[in-house]
Design goal:
By secondary structure, the protein is mainly beta. It has a single domain (4-771), classed as Maltoporin, Chain A. The chain has seven helices and 39 strands. The longest helix is centred in the first third of the chain and has 22 residues, at 4-25. The relative contact order is 0.13. Residues 248-691 form the TonB-dependent receptor-like beta-barrel domain.
Length: 772
């Protein structure tokens, strides 16, 4: 088997040899300061933004919303996730002031395809989602919301795709440095440093970037638990109170990132080599106390009210890198291109939880080690043939070899505890002894290999007023799962499936300012990794067990988008869009009828393709200056998405789990060109969300978010900004209904009702940029 380092070496060698050969054979590149699709941006233009940025108007047939860095930068987003909080239909279920896994149109993250420079990237989570808070915003040239699918790309995009275009050598001329700091409400100061340079190098252009980002999130959580639900007992707060938990939760770490591109644009041959690397060192520290009183803060029972004292510390090291090279050539038979890519994600996580139970006077400790190794090697071939002056035919193939190794191991310890305890001066970690050797948990030691071979073909047309595209993509997948925690007869499982994915889209210009945009496509969502392991997990579904299903097929969806765009003034746009998705073969947990490990009343559940669902909504967006009312230096922007869906599960109808009912944001930027200054604000609100799984239901609500910036420009090379974010002390509230089993859930016989809230304070940052 070819090792990862040799795959990396081979990709890099081929790319470098190709670059060396082309340096001698490619005709002179495009003139300095220009490229095929527009002028090169000078570093001064990035540091000192002239005017107000708006959504770009794209000309491709697909329904795409594009936002350049000038749309985001003045609010100083730290990550790509932060930037996406200002675009339509993107929601997050993250902790307060964090933006990791985007939920396009409110659907779970696995329904959204994440692209970097137009190519998919492997996700680290079990649902294949990619955490966008790993990408520093400083590396971004633009972000795109691709509402529908195309035969050019893999079909894993039921909700749509989010494309992050990183800066490249032909996007920047010159360099700049960024330096600043972020002050949190616990007086922690974190650094933010960056350096980006782009310029001519040999026959092409080179861009290099490096970033250091301090990460910090101090939160306070509070939980109130009751023995029943208020649906059955409106006096639960006094009659059925069980316990209260107070928790501090601090996320602290550093992100280190490096990126580089080398690109040669010739008359007939183009070459591009990309590299991107992010390392995260993160520590999550939680300390929580449970009391048997709603307000008391004192010592252990029986004298006091303290039930438990818990310490939970997670040390997380993550690395994520990609390297890919693309070579394209125009010749008499058309234009051919080949792209070779390699991506790798690793996570090493050690989590230690120590707890004292003062009712039983017991100390318990548990240490969990999680190791994830996820790699993808891919090759994409594409050939384009003109069909007269107004159309072209494109066809190609795609190969991917994905390997994922998951290891989860545990070690536990128990001992007696003392009734004498001061939770304000002592810590349960001090009672921990050396842990025993790690043992794999059920389903926690497996290997997954996924091979994909796709072919696609499409026709594009452009008649001036009408731009259109229609295509087919045929995807085949072979999956092999090897789980080392189950019996040998079940350890090695295989599954094969294939899908035909048609797609079509158009843009019809009604006038110079108005156009209609439409699309229809079939897409899919592949099963979660933790569902396809053949392991049996005891008490994973309430008191019942969960058995994986290696034969799961992907969910598939037919959907359409229909939108309208109106150009306003020189750069403004108003847009409206409706969308609909019909999802089939939904993956739901089903009762196998086998009794569970806890005996009578419990069962073994297994994920199967059994359900259907539908998703629909309306989306509006606006970004424009107010020149039409005499305020050309005032820019306003906003978007509103109303989202809905329907799924039928074991109880009845519900929305897709955790889909917010709506999300909107609006704001303004006021520029003062004569003074070299600007200020602005943005306000965001996300609607409530409901989720229901076996034995648990949760309703989540969010507080509003407010950000304000003030900017001063000095000449053409220096800018300083002050930004205040989370100024409304963002809060997230969750209400849980918990049950012992599905029968109790149907009968509404509650085991526990819990109210949990978390809150974080404002964050202030000062950021300066200097161009050279």
């Amino acid at each position: 088997m070819v090792t990862n380092k040799w795959v990396m070496f081979g990709c890099a060698s081929v790319a470098l040899l190709s670059a060396s050969a082309m340096a001698q054979s490619i005709p002179a590149p495009a003139d300095e300061g220009t490229r095929a699709d527009g002028p090169i941006t000078s570093a001064n233009e990035i540091v000192v933004i002239a005017g107000i940025g708006y959504r770009d108007r794209t000309d491709t047939p697909e329904p795409v919303l594009k936002y350049g860095t000038d749309y985001f930068q003045r609010f100083e987003p730290l990550t790509a996730g932060d930037a996406l909080k200002r675009v339509p239909s993107v929601t997050f279920l993250s902790d307060v002031i964090e933006s990791d896994a985007p939920r396009l149109r409110g659907l779970p993250p696995g329904y959204t395809q994440i692209l970097i420079n137009g190519e998919r990237v492997p996700g680290s989570a079990a649902d294949r989602s990619f955490f966008l808070d790993r990408i520093p915003a400083e590396l971004i040239d633009s972000v795109e919301i691709i509402r529908s699918s195309s035969a050019r790309r893999t079909g894993d995009a039921v909700a749509g795709s989010l494309n992050i275009n990183l800066r490249d050598g032909y996007e920047l001329d010159g360099g700049y440095v960024r330096a600043g700091g972020l002050l949190f409400n616990d007086d922690e100061l974190e650094p933010s440093l960056g350096l980006v340079w782009g310029g001519k190098a040999g026959p092409g252009r080179l861009l290099l970037g490096a970033n250091l980002q301090g990460r910090h999130n101090p939160k306070r959580k509070k939980s109130l638990r009751y023995g029943d639900s208020p649906e059955n007992n409106p006096d639960y707060a006094t009659d059925d109170f069980d316990n209260r938990e107070d928790q501090t939760d601090t996320r602290d770490g550093k992100d280190y990132s490096f990126n580089g591109t080398y690109e040669i644009d010739g008359e007939t041959t183009d070459f591009k080599l990309n590299g991107f690397y992010v390392r995260t060192d993160r520590k999550e520290t939680e300390r929580s106390f449970e009391y048997d009183d709603a307000t008391a803060v004192n010592g252990p029972v029986p004298v006091g009210n303290l039930l438990t004292d818990n310490s939970n510390i997670a040390d997380i090291d993550q690395e994520n890198y990609t390297i890919d090279g693309k070579l394209s050539h125009e010749w008499s038979a058309g234009k051919s291109s080949v792209r070779v890519g390699y991506a790798r994600f690793t996570e090493d996580r050690i989590e230690t939880e120590n707890e004292i139970d003062f009712e039983d006077l017991e100390f318990s400790g548990q240490r969990t080690r999680t190791d994830i190794r996820d790699t993808e090697f891919s090759v994409k071939l594409e050939h384009e043939v003109p069909l007269g002056e107004q159309a072209k035919f494109v066809f190609g193939g795609y190969y991917q070899d994905k390997r994922r190794r998951t290891g989860m191991f545990e070690s536990e310890q128990e001992s007696d505890a003392s009734a004498t305890w001061d939770q304000f001066k002592q810590n349960p970690d001090n009672l921990a002894a050396a842990f025993d050797d790690f043992e794999p948990v059920d389903g926690g030691d497996n290997r997954i290999r996924e091979k994909r071979r796709d072919v696609f073909a499409l026709v594009e047309g452009d008649t001036g007023r009408l731009k259109w595209e229609a295509g087919l993509r045929y995807e085949t997948t072979k999956v092999r799962i090897t789980d080392y925690t189950v019996a040998a007869a079940l350890a090695d499982q295989r599954a094969d499936y294939e899908k035909l994915l048609p797609s079509a889209s158009f843009k019809l210009s009604l006038s110079e300012s108005d156009r209609i945009i439409g699309s229809v496509a079939r897409t899919l969502r592949r099963p979660d990794f933790n569902y396809i392991s053949p392991a049996l997990l005891e008490e994973e579904v309430g008191d019942s067990d969960l058995l994986g299903n290696p034969q799961l097929r992907p969910e598939s969806a037919w959907g359409f988008d229909l939108g309208y765009e109106h150009r306003m003034g020189t750069g403004g746009i108003f847009g409206a869009n409706i969308f609909y998705r019909k999802v089939k073969d939904l993956i739901e947990l089903t009762n196998t009828g086998v009794e569970g490990s806890e005996g009578e009343g419990t069962f073994v559940y297994q994920p199967r393709n059994v359900g259907d669902g539908k998703v629909w909504g309306v989306e509006f967006d606006l970004s424009t200056d107010l020149g039409f009312v005499g305020l050309p230096n005032t820019g306003v922007f906003g978007n509103l998405s109303w989202l809905d869906s329907e799924v039928r599960d074991f109880i009845g109808k519900r929305r897709f789990n955790d889909q917010s009912k709506y999300v909107y944001n609006f704001g303004f930027i006021q520029d003062f060109p004569n003074f070299g200054a600007a200020f602005g604000a943005t306000y965001r609100k996300q609607g409530s969300a409901f989720g229901r799984v076996i034995a648990e239901e949760v309703t989540t609500t969010y507080g509003a978010e407010l950000e304000i910036f003030v900017e001063k420009r000095f000449g053409k090379t220096f800018t300083i900004r002050a930004v205040g974010s989370n100024l409304l002390n963002g809060r997230k509230r969750e209400a849980f209904n918990k049950f012992d089993n599905i029968a109790d859930q149907i009968d509404r016989d509650f085991d526990e009702y819990e109210l949990e809230s978390e809150k974080a304070g404002p964050v202030f940052q000062i950021m300066a940029r200097y161009a050279f």
